[in-house]
UniProtKB/TrEMBL annotation, chain A:
Protein name according to UniProt: Adaptor related protein complex 1 subunit beta 1
A single GO BP: intracellular protein transport
InterPro entries named in the record: AP_beta, ARM-like, ARM-type_fold, Armadillo, B-adaptin_app_sub_C, Clathrin/coatomer_adapt-like_N, Clathrin_a/b/g-adaptin_app_Ig, Clathrin_app_Ig-like_sf
Keywords: Acetylation, Membrane, Protein transport, Transport
Domain Beta-adaptin appendage C-terminal subdomain: 777-887
Broad class of where this protein is predominantly found: membrane
Subcellular location: Endomembrane system
Ranges that cross the membrane: none
Domain of life assignment: Eukaryota
From TrEMBL, chain B:
A GO CC term assigned to this protein in UniProt: trans-Golgi network
Organism domain of life: Eukaryota
Membrane topology reported for the UniProt record: Peripheral membrane protein
All copies of domain MHD, residue ranges: 168-421
Keyword Phosphoprotein: yes
Name this protein carries in UniProt: AP-1 complex subunit mu-2
Major location category of this protein: membrane
Record-level GO BP terms: intracellular protein transport; vesicle-mediated transport
Gene assigned in the entry: LOC110485640
Listed Gene3D superfamilies: 3.30.450.60, Mu homology domain, subdomain B
Job description of the protein: Subunit of clathrin-associated adaptor protein complex 1 that plays a role in protein sorting in the trans-Golgi network (TGN) and endosomes. The AP complexes mediate the recruitment of clathrin to membranes and the recognition of sorting signals within the cytosolic tails of transmembrane cargo molecules.
Keyword annotations from UniProtKB, A to Z: Cytoplasmic vesicle, Golgi apparatus, Membrane, Phosphoprotein, Protein transport, Transport
Annotated localization: Cytoplasmic vesicle, Clathrin-coated vesicle membrane; Golgi apparatus
Length: 888, 439
């Protein structure tokens, strides 16, 4: 029990006497007293033998009490627990099914190794009992026993019996058998216990209609682990699961949503059923918001995921996420988050009106988040930016301290997003300078003053006022102040020399913060050696901030969608992050979309590609024809020869990244005379698609544009295709197209497949090509040794794949430096019996790490390579890169 | 899968009773629960899931008790909360009131129930009517012939026992619609919906098959019928007993009802609702001096109908004093512990308009704590009327013995409890210098 409270010896003695009384009533009362003592936390384990003696009774209530006592104390008295075995065995054969079930239920709760094996025979009988109540209890007992002694359960063949129970005639037995098997399978991920196949799925779906609400949850959660063979099977399961969305129990609804969200991944988007299903999902999700607050909270956390995965489901339901005055704070904050995610041009007016209302509430955290939300709306919905700014100004007028500070922080972001647009508000902001006491707000204000110093007459005074207490400021503010004053100096050098001297000496001489000191020195040197360069560095144009900063990374999102309704979906963390011993468990993934009869899609007719590119409104933006006049430097043909040149260099020095030779991607025959060949390269951290366009037709080609279909790593053109217009007959041009990795993601097969559409004045052409995955290897892919070791251990062995690289005649150092050129970093080298083992790490642009062990034996041209990765599907591609890099 | 153990704690965090279902979480971990909760409460950021190390606490509060489930796995959180609420429901039916005392007085039954409700973290039988057939308060005498598992426990029909008998077979149907509404200070309706429930009181013998017919638009569209007013239900939720796949395929609501009282279904309707009672208010705050409140309530429903127990709750500052009221009907009073002025009107006929004025004094030294601006709420009941126009068209009752049974239907529209009609308002603030308007 929870706490031990001493119980006096006299009391124990008295109870002992009563327990051994001949009168049944007295006995029962005594056991009750014992249990009462146990309940309040007194230690009554000393009475063990006396209580166990009462076990053989025909009074059900007394028996239950004794069993209860046994469950609590058996573990502390293992030797004496054996005394109870006989009664259990006997009770399992009792004529009354309630007693048989009670015995088998309690038996499994006595976690004493010594007695488990005595329990096998009774359990075996109970699993075949004629009464379903006993069978359903026995099914759960198998899971209990497995938890204590897995080997024993396997040896005794209980797992097979349990599997048989899935076909039991009674729905409750089926449900418990499914629950027990799922539980066992979860702790033994590789046991392949739940080998779900269409037949067993069919049985489960039938039982789904008949069992209790809880049984339905067990079955739905189990179904969610199944991967249908094709879209037809997927659809038929979805059809049989959707009625569950009308169940009164919120947990049944969420588990059904999980199955549907997962399986609909496999459905072709142009299927009518797909859109029907999308429509069916919204109402039950909305209804979850009228459940009890705790269930609402779980629902909201899940809706947050669903909105990120499939925004179309709830895009018209903004109003239901409006916060109610009496919602608990945890519900309020979640609703607010979802409101921002759903904000769009269509509903922004309402959203803003609501947010402004929230900003006048009392709950500080909620108010802050509401103010911040207004800023996020401004950044997300460009058309609303002006209205958001004026709302924020209204709020600043309230002079409520934390509202003002929060508003200033978000206004800074708005300035970042829309430079030179809202500077008129700076005056108002400056009025509140004195009331700012939070570092984040102070830093934001200082940034604003520095950034717009040329428009603020007294910028120097303002910044100087901060300088007085420089050493009491937090690092964030100090750094910002340093930069702001340097900016000011570069903009108004004549009046501010003294100020900049002052801040530089404060930062470099009087501070012991290395970051601050370093930054100070850098500025100092820049300013003293080359003021022009300083201007270019400090006043450089800043990259725009993106609209949504807190989106969940796509692979994690997919995994979390597979865990809808569970703690993982509430924490927004994978189970491996908070469940001990789950490291070896496979990360769940959404199934890939597959056609019922897999055949390569004809490229030029691919409906998906056509749909995505063709009539979609996105096309306008993506295809925007190249501007007529281009800066010369961008138009210069980019030679693919640079990499080759480096390759000639001696072994041992780092070389440039491997660039595959150009091949023809689109023959002229298929594209009305336009031939495209190309390759991919990574130069200075930028992925580039290098194309050669040849006009083999008779007429002039103009208006080139390019677009990609969604692909595995979100590759997308980072700018328009820059083609010098026009391309005359028989002319050839080399173009280099920088790529980003922030485009929409969809798993492709093969993984590195890229479907491309190129447009010109004649038509739109489609082709597909494969890029070497090494393009995605980023420069900071060198893992710390310790991290490498831990990660290597952490990734389950199932995720390891081994490959042979034949006929490679480099030594290990040469190989290592060659690989480094492609951002494959050697972390450590070990030599064992003439064999060099190289440990390497690679980081992909989407954050996936690949760890490798390369074994090189002197004189043997065949290398062995082992790859370990949490996303093992990339291994094949990575291996291909190794081969390509090493052999070229 | 779900809970490793379930605890019932008092408000001080003391364990009143607990049940360890899986043994994979140290039972002493519960000692961390209250300190965690208190830290969160101090920060003003409570959360129904808390964790300590690798142990997670999922909890709900009921009267003066905390019900807490612990786990160290990736449990199904929605299942755990649904289960905890079910536990509350079962205990409440057993002990009428679920509170500290009822747990202490009935610990034997509580243990028995906990044993039957969940096994190894899997919820089992949670229907209290069925449980009462074999877990009785007095303790079962074990006479083999008598005690056996009610087959209901494991039957596909797990909510109704066989052999129920009534002299007069009747079923009472209550259709209750509640209104959720939010009106902004400028009088625009921000959001509105109707949550309806159909409650049954079944007094029928045997195992009757029931079919409920509503004027459901989707059903009419399906059968091609087109007469009279129909209602579009946005979402429908059913009791365990209703055959969901049947409803999914042809919108038929067919079921074998539980005996006695039960909630058969609930539905949600998104259509724009006209606020049945419209509130207009002028609230003026003269700082350091007084608050003046004027509220006008207008019945925007049919003249023949009457709203009963209308209650208009107007928030007032927490430091207000010396209330004065004037009403054109009904009665107003000050409820200082809730910072509310409550105006009650026992019966409010449709189409009528009433007025209430209140004034409060404010101390010259004012509370500088920020105060929120809770909306004005209106609660009421209008009998014999559903705002959506939903109707029970028929209730077919078929039992193999062939008895005749009578269905009785009652309609009511209400606001209050979980649903509310909320009106935001502008607070006109007057200080000595100039007025500032917050909306």
């Amino acid at each position: 029990m929870v706490c031990s409270v001493s119980i006096c010896a006299g009391e124990i003695f008295e109870l002992k006497a009563e327990l051994n009384s001949d009168k049944k009533e007295k006995k029962k009362e005594a056991v009750k007293k014992v249990i009462a003592s146990m309940t309040v936390g007194k230690d009554v384990s000393a009475l063990f033998p006396d209580v166990v003696n009462c076990m053989q009774t025909d009074n059900l209530e007394l028996k239950k009490l004794v069993y209860l006592y046994l469950m609590n104390y058996a573990k502390s008295q293992p030797d004496m627990a054996i005394m109870a075995v006989n009664t259990f065995v006997k009770d399992c054969e009792d004529a009354n099914p309630l007693i048989r079930a009670l015995a088998v239920r309690t038996m499994g709760c006595i976690r004493v190794d010594k007695i488990t094996e005595y329990l096998c025979e009774p359990l075996r009988k109970c699993l075949k009992d004629e009464d379903p109540y006993v069978r359903k209890t026995a099914a759960v007992c198998v899971a209990k026993l497995h938890d204590i002694n897995a080997q024993l359960v396997e040896d005794q063949g209980f797992l097979d019996t349990l599997k048989d129970l899935i076909s039991d005639s009674n729905p409750m037995v089926v449900a418990n058998a499914v629950a027990a098997l799922s539980e066992i399978a979860e702790s033994h991920p590789n046991s392949n216990l739940l080998d779900l196949n269409p037949q067993s799925i069919n049985k489960l779906l039938t039982a789904l209609n008949e069992c209790t609400e809880w049984g339905q949850i067990f079955i739905l959660d189990c179904l969610a682990n199944y991967t249908p063979r094709d879209d037809r099977e997927s659809q038929s399961i979805c059809e049989r699961v959707t009625p569950r969305l009308s169940h009164a129990n919120s947990a049944v609804v969420l588990s059904a949503v999980k199955v549907l969200m997962k399986f609909m991944e496999m459905l072709p988007k142009d299927l009518d059923y797909y859109s029907t299903l999308l429509k069916k999902l919204a109402p039950p999700l909305v209804t979850l918001l009228s459940a009890e607050p705790e269930l609402q909270y779980v629902a909201l956390r899940n809706i947050n995921l669903i909105v990120q995965k499939r925004p179309e489901i709830l895009k018209h339901e903004m109003k239901v996420f409006f916060v109610k005055y009496n919602d608990p704070i945890y519900v309020k904050l979640e609703k607010l988050d979802i409101m921002i995610r759903l904000a769009s041009q269509a509903n922004i007016a309402q959203v803003l009106a609501e947010l402004k209302e929230y900003a006048t509430e009392v709950d500080v955290d909620f108010v802050r988040k509401a103010v911040r939300a207004i800023g996020r709306c401004a950044i997300k919905v460009e058309q609303s930016a002006e209205r958001c700014v004026s709302t924020l100004l209204d709020l600043i007028q309230t002079k409520v301290n934390y509202v003002v500070q929060e508003a200033i922080v978000v206004i800074k972001d708005i300035f970042r997003k829309y430079p030179n647009k809202y500077e008129s508000v700076i005056a108002t902001l400056c009025e509140n300078l004195d009331s700012l006491d939070e570092p984040e707000a102070r830093a934001a204000m200082i940034w604003i003053v520095g950034e717009y110093a040329e428009r603020i007459d007294n910028a120097d005074e303002l910044l100087e006022s901060f300088l007085e207490g420089f050493h009491d400021e937090s690092t964030q503010v100090q750094l910002q102040l340093l930069t702001a004053i340097v900016k000011l100096f570069l903009k108004k050098p004549t009046e501010t020399q003294e100020l900049v001297q002052q801040v530089l000496s404060l930062a470099t001489q009087d501070s012991d913060n290395p970051d601050l000191r370093d930054r100070g020195y850098i500025y100092w040197r820049l300013l003293s050696t080359d003021p022009v360069a300083a201007k270019e560095v400090v006043l450089a144009e800043k990259p725009l901030i993106s609209e949504e900063t807190d989106l969940i990374e796509p692979t994690l999102l997919e995994e979390l969608i597979c865990h809808i309704g569970t703690l993982a979906s509430v924490y927004h963390k994978p189970p491996s992050a908070f469940v001990e011993g789950s490291r070896g468990v496979m990360h769940k993934r959404l199934p890939a979309r597959t056609g019922s009869n897999v055949k390569p899609e004809p490229l030029s007719l691919s409906p998906q590609l056509g749909g995505d590119i063709g009539g979609s409104p996105a096309m306008g933006a993506g295809f925007g024809a190249a501007p007529a006049v281009m800066p010369a430097s961008l138009n210069a043909p980019v030679g693919g020869g640079l990499g080759d040149l480096f390759d000639l260099g001696g072994v041992g020095m780092p070389m440039g990244a491997y660039i595959p030779p150009k091949i023809v991607w689109l023959p002229a025959m298929k594209a009305k005379g336009l031939e495209i060949s190309g390759t991919f390269a990574r130069r200075a951290g930028v992925i580039q698609m290098e194309l050669i366009l040849t006009n083999k037709a008779m007429s002039v080609m103009t208006d080139f544009a390019i677009q990609f279909n969604r692909n595995s790593f979100g590759l997308a053109p980072a700018g328009p295709l820059q083609v010098l217009t026009p391309l005359g007959p028989n002319q050839t041009i080399e173009v280099s197209l920088p790529l980003s990795t922030v485009g929409p993601v969809m798993k492709m097969d093969p993984l590195n497949n890229l479907q491309v559409a190129v447009k010109n004045n004649i038509d739109v052409f489609y082709f597909s090509c494969q890029y070497p995955i090494s393009m995605l290897f980023v420069e900071d892919g060198k893992m710390e040794r310790q991290v490498f070791l831990a990660t290597w251990k952490d990734i389950p062995n199932d995720n390891e794949s081994q490959f042979q690289i034949k006929d490679c005649h480099l030594n290990s150092d040469a190989a290592s430096s060659k690989l480094q050129g492609s951002n494959i970093f050697t972390i450590a080298k070990r030599t064992v019996e003439g064999q060099d083992m190289l440990y390497m790490s690679i980081k992909l642009s989407n954050g996936i790490w690949v760890l490798a062990e390369l074994r090189v034996q002197a004189g043997n041209p065949n290398y062995t390579i082992s790859l370990k990765c949490r996303a093992p599907e990339v291994s094949q591609c990575v291996f291909q890169c190794y081969e390509a890099v090493l052999k070229n | 899968m779900s809970a490793s153990a379930v605890f019932v704690l008092d408000l001080k965090g003391k364990v009143l009773i607990c049940r360890n279902y899986k043994g994979d979480v140290d039972m002493a971990e519960i000692d961390h629960f209250l300190p965690l909760l208190m830290t969160q409460e101090e920060e003003g950021l409570t959360c129904p899931i808390m964790s300590h190390g690798n142990v997670h606490f999922l909890w709900i509060k009921h009267t003066n008790l905390y019900l807490v489930a612990t786990t160290n796995k990736n449990s199904n959180a929605s299942l755990v909360y649904a289960f905890l609420y079910k536990v509350v429901e079962v205990f409440t039916e057993y002990f009428t009131e679920l509170e500290e005392e009822s747990i202490q007085d009935n610990f034997v039954v509580v243990y028995e129930l906990l044993d039957e409700l969940m096994d190894f973290g899997f919820p089992q039988t949670t229907d209290s009517k069925i449980l009462q057939e074999y877990i009785t308060q007095e303790g079962t005498k074990l006479e083999v012939a008598k005690t056996k598992v009610p087959t209901t426990v494991t039957n596909a029909v797990s909510w109704r026992s066989e052999g129920i008998k009534y002299k007069k077979n009747e079923v009472f149907i209550d259709v209750i619609e509640s209104i959720n509404l939010l009106v902004n200070a400028n009088g625009s309706v921000m959001s509105s919906d109707i949550v309806g429930t159909v409650k049954l009181k079944t007094m029928l013998s045997g195992m009757p098959e029931l079919r409920l017919g509503l004027n459901d638009r989707a059903l009419f569209a399906l059968t091609g019928r087109d007469k009279g007013k129909t209602v579009t239900m946005e979402d429908v939720k059913f009791h365990q007993c209703v055959r969901l796949s049947r409803f999914e395929s042809d919108r038929t609501i067919s079921f074998i009802p539980p005996d006695g009282e039960s909630e058969l279904m609930s539905y949600r309707i998104n259509t724009h609702v006209k606020p049945l009672i419209w509130i207009e208010s002028v609230i003026e705050k003269f700082s350091h001096s007084r608050v003046e409140i004027m509220v006008k309530a207008k019945g925007q429903f049919k003249k023949q109908s009457v709203a009963n127990n209308v209650e208009v709750r107007v928030p007032v500052p927490s430091d207000a004093d010396s209330p004065k009221f004037k009403t054109s009907t009904g009665h107003a009073k000050y409820v200082p512990e809730k910072n509310l002025a409550v105006w009650t009107i026992k019966s409010f006929p449709g189409g009528k308009e009433f007025l209430m004025r209140a004034s409060f004094g404010l101390p010259s030294v004012e509370n500088d704590e920020m105060e929120g601006k809770p909306p004005i709420t209106v609660n009421f009941e209008i009998p014999y009327f559903t705002v959506s126009g939903i109707q029970v068209r028929y209730m077919k009752i078929i039992e193999k013995s062939g008895y005749q049974a009578l269905p009785w239907v009652r309609y009511i529209t209400q606001s209050g409890g979980r649903t509310a009609m909320l009106f935001r308002y502008s607070l006109l603030m007057y200080s000595k210098k100039r007025p500032i308007i917050y909306s």
